[in-house]
Amino acid sequence: MDNKILIEAKDFLDAALDSDDQGRQELISRLESLLEAGDHDSIRDFFYSLHPADGAQALELFSPEKACAFITLLNNETQAQIFNYLPPHFETRMASCLGRAQLARIIGAMSHDERADLYNRLTSEQQEEVLPALAHAEREDIRRLASYSEGTAGAVMTSDYAALSPDITAREALEKLRREAPDKETIYQCYVIDENRRLVGVISLRELLVASPRSLVSEVMNQQPIFAHARDNAEEVASTIAKYDLMAMPIINGDDKLVGIVTFDDVHDILEEEATEDFHRMGSISGHGESLVGVNFREASPWLIIQKRLPWLLALVFVNLLSGAGIAFFESTIEAVVALVFFLPLLIASAGNAGSQSSTLMVRALATGDVKASDWLYLLGKEVGIALTLGLGMALAVSMVGIFRGGPEVAIVVGLTMTVVVLFGSLVGCLLPFLLARMKVDPATASVPLITSIADIGGILIYFSIATWLLEVPAAH
C-alpha cells in the first residue's frame, strides 16, 4: 500500500466517514482488495497508524466475520485495545466469530474491567470454552468482577489499580510505581491499604513527587478518602466522581477491603448511557428486550426500533381517545359557536408546550441533584407564579386574534382558557417528575409525549367547559 493511498485511507476518519457513503465504500473496497491480495503488511501498517478508537470505527464498516479477518492480522495488544472501543453489540458478534484460542488471547490482553464486561456478554457456552484457555489469575479476576450485578459499582470497576503500604517511604513508593506502571490502569491516584487489604488512605502521584523521599506514605496520604461500596448504584458513583472531580474512586466490599476502582473513563461511559436512556424515555422509546443504549442507530435494525417505539405510541393512541370523547361531549357548544374550533389546536398545543418545558427543567434538575424530591412544594409555588405570568402574557396576545375572529365574548373565553391551560400544563409538567421519583420510577419517564397527551385532554375539557359556562351553551344535547 503506497503512502498516498495509506494517507487517503486514513483521512476517511476525518472526511469520508463523516461525508457520504461513497467515501466509506472507497475505503472498504481498498481494504478488501488488500486482504484478497494477501497484502497483510499494508493492512497492519494501516491499523497501527490509527488510534485504537479509529481502528474500531474502521472495523465497524465491515461485517463481524470480515472484521475478524482484519483484526487477527494484528498483535494481541492492538487487538485488545481495539476491542475496548468497539460497541458492545459488535464486540459480542466478533467474539462469536473468533476461535477459542484467539479470543482467549485477546481477553487476556484486555484491561480488567473491559474483559469482565465482554465475558458477561458471551453466551454460557462461549464462557465455558474460553475460561480454560486463560491463565489462572485471569480466570479468577474475571469470575470476581463478573459476579457483581449489572448497574452496580462492582460491575464497572477494574481491579487493575496501584496499591501502596502505609509504612513505606515516598522513595520506595515511587520505585514500586515505576515497576508496576505499565500494567496498571492509572497510577496518578494510589490507594493505601493495610496488611488485611483494608483501605486506609489515598495519595496522588504529585504528592509523592513533592514529598520528602524519607517521608512515610502514612504521613503524606489523605486519611479520609472518598469511596463507594461494590453494591452501590453505578450511576450514583458516577455522579459522586463528577461532583468531586476525581480521576478514580476506590471501591470496597463489605469488609472494607479494597476490591477495585472506578475510573473517569468508566464514569464517562456510565453518564453517556444514562443520558441516552433518559432521552429515550423522554421520547417514549422503551419496552422489553434488547436496549437501544450502546447500539449504533445507523446500524440498528428497523424491527428493533419499531419494538421500542410502538408500545408507547399504541398506549398514547388510546389515551388520546379521551380527547375525542371530550370533544364529542361538547358538540353542542361547538355547533353553537363554530369559531371556537379555530383556537382549539393553538390552546391545547400551548398547554402541551408549557408542560414539556416545565417537565424538561424538573427532570434535568432532579438528575443533576439541583433539587430533591422534598423540594416539590416550594417549586410548585414557584411554578404557579411563573405559569400565571406566562399564561397572562400569551392570553393577551391571543385575545387580540379572538376579537377579530369571534368577537369580544370569544376573545374572553380564549384569553381565560389560555391562562388556565398554561397553568395546568406547567403544573402537570412540574409535579409528574416528582411523583414518579416518589414512586421510585425514573423521572425521565415523564416524557414529552406523555405530558402532551395529558395536557391535550385537560386543555380540551378546560376550553369547552369555560366556553359553555361563559357563553351559556348547554354542554350536550
From TrEMBL:
Q: What is the lineage of its organism?
A: Bacteria, Pseudomonadati, Thermodesulfobacteriota, Desulfovibrionia, Desulfovibrionales
Question: Looking at the UniProt record for this protein, which Gene Ontology cellular component terms does it annotate, in alphabetical order?
Answer: plasma membrane
Question: What are the protein's UniProt keywords?
Answer: CBS domain, Cell membrane, Magnesium, Membrane, Metal-binding, Transmembrane, Transmembrane helix, Transport
**CDD domains, from UniProt?**
CBS_pair_Mg_transporter (cd04606)
Q: Establish whether keyword Transport is in the entry.
A: yes
What single Pfam family name could you report for this chain, choosing any that match? Answer: CBS
**Membrane disposition:** Multi-pass membrane protein
SUPFAM superfamilies associated with the record:
CBS-domain pair, MgtE membrane domain-like, MgtE N-terminal domain-like
Q: How does it assemble?
A: Homodimer.
Designated name of the protein: Magnesium transporter MgtE
What this chain does, per the entry, is described as: Acts as a magnesium transporter.
Query: Matching InterPro entries, A to Z?
Result: CBS_dom (IPR000644), CBS_dom_sf (IPR046342), Mg_transptr_MgtE_intracell_dom (IPR006668), MgtE_N_sf (IPR038076), MgtE_transporter (IPR006669), SLC41_membr_dom (IPR006667), SLC41_membr_dom_sf (IPR036739)
Keyword Zinc present in the record's keywords: the answer is: no
Annotated ranges, domain CBS: 157-219, 221-277
Q: Where in the cell is it found?
A: Cell membrane; Membrane
Q: In which organism is this protein found?
A: Desulfonatronospira thiodismutans ASO3-1
